[in-house]
Write a structure and sequence with these properties.
Layout lengths: L5 H14 L4 H8 L3 H9 L6 H11 L12 H16 L14 H16 L3 H21 L5 H21 L3 H18 L2 H18 L2 H14 L6 H20 L3 H18 L3 E3 L2 E3 L1 H15 L4 H10 L8 H17 L3 H14 L1 H6 L1 H13 L4 H11 L3
Antiparallel strand pairs: 1-2
């Protein structure tokens, strides 16, 4: 996709800066660049380099791809991090000395990485997660007995965050090994809720292998093993398992099982009462609505009306994690394309990109829909061609 003009990039930076109530001087100081440079960039008189763009984006707490379409830095950083991640986990069961961070610092670093995962800020994750994961592994092996469970929980969370990058960028073998590490840490935590989260994430391996029937069986076992939903956290953990079971049941073309699990997830969302992030997973009434669309799309074109009905009555609020909002519009675009609503499908893809550019760019369904639209949809052809080029569909 052709690069944005300097004026467009500058306007986005200025809008984000004002939203965060920063002056140009404050942004310049925090990004370690000159005030004159920030002023020139925001006027559109100067195009920021990748290094400057990344520094500004970090201060604004967003991915640089949200400031400049076609930005390639995220892919570069992710692919550079993958071999390092592979090396970090090669011998995770072998003690290798103490971590470089004390427990509080490590917990803060893991927490920041989780927020970036929910916001689909993969470049920021890639820049830090190898070191964070290495320290989390070391902490598990060196933590005193009273800290062992917490150390294992931190490792499980760090491994999940690293897996998000590996899985999204197609490193399937590395993703599977990171999930094995997450399950190992969950077992060491002796926390049934952490084990439930590990079972939720493990479903990626079944999706990747198209082993939908056995994946559904694995999730149903995880539901049985999960604690009874006597608290909000326990209800959210069990509800998330039901949401994912509904989707994989859809992929297995098991309509009855998909509907049963959706119903269970809906009831647990009502029990939880409000949308939130629980144990690193978004869950609540809004997330269940999004999964209603996911299930309809998983079941195929004959169920497209189910997805369209949800979208006619509801749209995800901006308070939801960016990755989840982006996923909703990508799946909605697929349903709209099947229904012959190509214009609507293109609009949905553009909304998905605005919410989470890198998530959209790496999503195979978004690429598939964009490629099909470019071949068959003639309205707004120039914009569609630019979008298809950006997403790698040409």
């Amino acid at each position: 996709m052709p690069a944005d003009s300097p004026r467009e990039v500058g306007e986005r930076i200025a809008a984000r800066r004002r939203a965060r109530r920063l002056t140009q001087t404050q942004l310049a100081d925090a990004a370690h660049v000159s005030y004159a440079m920030i002023r020139a960039i925001e006027r559109g008189a100067r195009r920021p380099s990748d290094d400057v763009l990344e520094a500004v984006a970090a201060v604004l707490d967003i991915d640089a791809a949200q400031l400049r379409a076609g930005y390639q830095g995220t892919e570069r950083r992710v692919h550079a991090a993958l071999p390092e991640l592979s090396a970090v986990i090669a011998g995770y069961e072998i003690p290798q000395g103490p971590p470089t961070r004390h427990p509080g610092e490590l917990a803060e670093a893991v927490g920041a990485a989780v927020e970036w995962r929910l916001g689909a800020q993969y470049g920021r994750i890639a820049a830090t997660i190898p070191g964070v994961l290495a320290d989390a592994i070391r902490y598990v092996h060196t933590a005193p007995a009273r800290e062992h469970a917490e150390a294992a929980r931190l490792l499980a969370s760090a491994a999940r965050t690293a897996d998000a990058v590996a899985f999204k960028y197609g490193a399937r073998d590395l993703s599977a090994r990171l999930i094995d590490l997450m399950r190992w840490a969950a077992d060491r935590s002796e926390d049934p809720l952490v084990k439930a989260v590990a079972a939720y994430v493990r479903t990626e391996t079944f999706f990747a292998a198209r082993a939908h029937t056995v994946g559904l069986a694995a999730l149903e076992q995880a539901v049985e093993a999960a604690p009874s939903p006597s608290s909000r956290l326990e209800a959210a953990a069990r509800g998330a398992l039901h949401m994912r079971a509904a989707v994989i049941a859809g992929r297995a073309e098991n309509v009855a099982a998909a509907d049963v699990h959706l119903g269970e997830a809906r009831a647990l969302a009502q029990k939880v009462g409000r949308e939130g992030t629980y144990l690193g997973t978004a869950f609540g009434p809004d997330s269940v609505r999004i999964h209603e669309v996911s299930v309809a799309v998983s079941l195929g074109p004959t169920h497209v009306d189910r997805a369209l009905t949800v979208a006619e009555q509801w749209s995800p609020p901006n308070s939801l994690p960016a990755e989840r909002r982006s996923g909703f519009y990508i799946e909605l675009a697929r349903a709209q394309d099947w229904a012959g609503l190509q214009g609507d499908a293109f609009e949905s893809l553009k909304v998905a990109r605005a919410a989470a550019p890198q998530h959209t760019r790496e999503h195979p369904w978004a690429r598939e829909v964009a490629a099909g639209l470019r071949r068959h949809y003639r309205a707004d052809a120039e914009s569609l061609t630019h979008f298809a080029e950006w997403i790698g569909a040409v």
